[in-house]
C-alpha cells in the first residue's frame, strides 16, 4: 500500500507548543536565559615565584605566566579593576628550599606569604586565597610528608595547619587546602581559631580527583619531574561520586565554609550532587589541563576558543557552582564588562 494516512500538522503534533518561539531573536533568548555568568563568579589563580620585575611564560599554558612579587601585585590591581572578587596564589619554590617534609611552608617570609602581604597592602579590596598543601615545598612533589613510600596523614595535617596560620597571619582571607588529607579541615579550623583568625574562611578542595588533567599545573609550580609514584592514595578515584559526597559532608562537619570540586568539566555531576544534596557554596576549578586543551585546539584553528571558553564556564554555573577558579578570568571579565 502506498498511502500513509492523514498527515498531521506540526501544531497537531506539538499541541501548539512551539519551543522555538523564544529562540527567534537575541532579545528573546536573553529574556528566558536560565543560567548567567558574571564577573562576580570568577576567581583568578596566578603563579608566583622569587625575583623582581619578571614574568616567565609557562609552555604548557599559553598566555599564563609565573610572576614575581611586584608583577603579582600588578596582576591583583588589574583583577580588582576588572571586578574579579578574589585571586588564588600558587608558588614555584626554588629547589634549594624544597625538602622531604616541605618545611619551607612554615617560613613566615616564604613567597606565598610575602605576596599575600604585598597584595593586601596594595589592593585591600580583593580577596586572597592561599593553599597550605605541601607539594610546592616537597622535593618529591607530593602534597604531604613522604616516609617509606607512604604519605603520612597525621604529620602532614599538623604541618598544613601550622602553614595555614602563617598564611592567615600574612593576610590571607580564605585558606583552601588541596592536599586531601583526612581531618585537615578540622585541624586548620582549630589552628586558625586558636591564633585569633576566626574570620578567615576555609574553602576545602573537598573532591579533588586523581585526574590526568593536572600536568601543566605541575610544570607551572616546578613539581612535574619530581613526583615519585602517584597521588591515588589520597585523591578521590575518578569513578566515584558517593565517595566525593562523603568527603564533602565530612568537610562541612569539620568547619569548611565552601567546597570545591577539581577538575571541573569531567565532574559536573559531582558539583550538582553536592549543591543539591548539601546546599553549601560550591566552586569548580577549571584546571590547567582543561585550559591547555582549549588553548591548543584554538591555536590550531579547530575550535572558536572564545566561544568554547564561555560555553564551558556557563556549564559550571548550570551545574550549580557558585563560582569558578579559572585561568581565563581576566579575559572573561573583559568580555563580560564589554
TrEMBL record:
EC class: lyase
Record-level GO cellular component terms: cytosol
Keywords associated with the record: Heme biosynthesis, Lyase, Magnesium, Metal-binding, Porphyrin biosynthesis
Residues where Mg(2+) binds: 247
Catalyzed reactions per annotation: 2 5-aminolevulinate = porphobilinogen + 2 H2O + H(+)
Entries under Pfam families matching the protein: ALAD (PF00490)
Enzyme Commission (EC) number: 4.2.1.24
GO aspect biological process, one term: protoporphyrinogen IX biosynthetic process
Pathway(s): Porphyrin-containing compound metabolism; protoporphyrin-IX biosynthesis; coproporphyrinogen-III from 5-aminolevulinate: step 1/4
Subunit structure: Homooctamer.
Stated name of the protein: Delta-aminolevulinic acid dehydratase
Native species: Oceaniradius stylonematis
Organism phylogeny: Bacteria, Pseudomonadati, Pseudomonadota, Alphaproteobacteria, Hyphomicrobiales
Gene label: hemB
Amino acid at each position: 500500500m502506498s498511502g500513509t494516512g492523514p498527515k498531521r500538522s506540526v501544531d497537531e503534533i506539538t499541541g501548539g507548543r512551539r519551543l522555538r518561539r523564544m529562540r527567534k531573536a537575541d532579545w528573546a533568548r536573553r529574556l528566558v536565559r536560565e543560567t548567567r555568568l558574571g564577573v562576580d563568579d570568577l576567581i583568578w589563580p596566578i603563579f608566583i615565584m622569587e625575583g623582581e620585575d619578571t614574568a616567565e611564560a609557562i609552555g604548557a599554558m599559553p598566555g599564563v605566566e609565573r610572576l614575581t612579587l611586584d608583577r603579582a601585585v600588578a596582576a591583583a590591581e588589574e583583577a580588582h579593576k576588572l571586578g574579579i572578587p578574589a585571586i588564588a596564589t600558587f608558588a614555584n619554590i626554588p629547589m634549594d628550599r624544597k625538602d622531604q617534609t616541605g618545611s619551607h611552608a612554615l617560613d613566615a617570609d616564604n613567597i606565598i606569604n610575602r605576596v599575600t602581604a604585598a597584595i593586601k597592602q596594595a589592593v585591600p579590596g580583593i580577596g586572597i586565597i592561599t593553599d597550605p598543601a605541601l607539594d610546592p615545598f616537597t622535593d618529591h612533589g607530593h602534597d604531604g610528608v613522604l616516609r617509606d613510600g607512604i604519605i603520612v596523614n597525621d604529620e602532614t595535617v599538623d604541618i598544613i595547619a601550622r602553614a595555614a596560620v602563617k598564611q592567615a597571619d600574612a593576610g590571607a582571607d580564605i585558606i583552601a587546602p588541596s592536599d586531601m588529607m583526612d581531618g585537615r579541615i578540622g585541624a586548620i579550623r582549630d589552628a586558625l581559631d586558636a591564633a585569633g583568625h576566626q574570620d578567615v574562611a576555609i574553602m576545602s578542595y573537598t573532591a579533588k580527583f586523581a585526574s590526568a588533567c593536572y600536568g601543566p599545573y605541575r610544570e607551572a609550580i616546578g613539581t612535574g619531574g619530581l613526583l615519585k609514584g602517584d597521588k591515588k592514595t589520597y585523591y578521590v578515584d575518578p569513578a566515584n561520586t558517593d565517595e566525593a559526597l562523603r568527603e564533602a559532608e565530612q568537610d562541612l562537619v569539620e568547619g569548611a565554609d565552601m567546597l570545591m570540586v577539581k577538575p571541573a568539566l569531567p565532574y559536573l555531576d559531582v558539583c550538582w550532587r553536592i549543591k543539591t544534596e548539601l546546599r553549601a557554596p560550591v566552586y569548580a576549578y577549571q584546571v590547567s589541563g582543561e585550559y591547555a586543551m582549549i588553548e591548543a585546539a584554538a591555536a590550531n584553528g579547530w575550535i572558536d576558543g572564545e566561544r568554547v571558553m564561555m560555553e564551558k564556564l556557563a556549564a559550571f554555573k548550570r551545574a550549580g557552582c557558585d563560582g569558578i577558579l579559572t585561568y581565563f578570568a581576566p579575559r572573561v571579565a573583559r568580555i563580560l564588562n564589554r
